[in-house]
């Protein structure tokens, strides 16, 4: 069965965005390493579908660039009625059932983009298979957590072969859930 993989970056104290949703700290030029994309393009080859919470989707739309995943099947989750677009399909009800069915369909793996609320929903439902987490060497002190407070305790297993320390201080770890 295809896997659902959360591929995401977080501050060392576990936040994925500032309290207002800003991710400027993630794109600080001082972290650039020429010709290094931290495994992103290789990861993209392994997936054909994305899952996003509505807040994350709205943030992506605000990036002032074309929609970044036009060739993928993109699902956005919202509890209110939303109009599908050429790039995304909205899912309102029965999120867990919907994703269970999606996993059973043939295809490549599925990228859970985030954010913290949707991450918690999938974790609690036992639908998350792996996490590829890139820790950024910064303490934010406050912000939007990697998993919202609805998340239940869950032990992870480190996949020892798939961890990498980059020379800019990024630490990428892969967990099986
Ligand atoms: N650091 C990174 O790599 C990274 C990656 C991804 C996201 N982010 C950041 O994460 C932040 C957003 O995270 P977040 O936790 O605030 O929000 P989120 O999970 O992206 O979206 C929350 C919204 O998704 C919908 N939703 C969530 N769970 C649902 C469910 N079970 N059923 C139906 N709809 C559901 C609801 O939309 P409605 O309100 O429309 O009902 C909810 O308000 C953004 O600032 C983004 O930039 C960072």
UniProtKB/TrEMBL annotation:
- Top-level taxon in the UniProt lineage: Bacteria
What is this protein called in UniProt?
Dihydrofolate reductase
Bacterial bifunctional deaminase-reductase C-terminal domain residues are 2-158
Provide a Gene Ontology MF annotation, just one. 5-amino-6-(5-phosphoribosylamino)uracil reductase activity
Tell me the InterPro entries matching this sequence: DHFR-like_dom_sf, RibDG_C, Riboflavin_Biosynth_HTPR
Quick one: a GO biological-process term for this protein?
A: riboflavin biosynthetic process
